[in-house]
Amino acid sequence: MIARLSEEERQALLPQLQGWSLDEGRDGLRRSFSFADFVQAFGFMTRVALLAEKADHHPEWSNVYNRVEILLTTHDAGGLSMRDIAMAKAISALG
Is residue 95 over pLDDT 80? Predict the structure, then answer.
């Protein structure tokens, strides 16, 4: 089973995730990305999809034209886990 992060772990890890914020209502990480146009936004989503499939950890997300909204939460853990932290770092590394 995947462990849910403790409050101490969250406080230690969140500063490492520039641009991500804690979504307390969903117990996950949330971030909004903006791009020049739809093609760039969709290309970004494609790169994220490949990362997610490889990690077997899929985001909840939406896309409206040049914006992509991402929520990371681990359903098996009942909230935020190290899987979300790792995925947030990998997504951020995409630029």
Answer: no
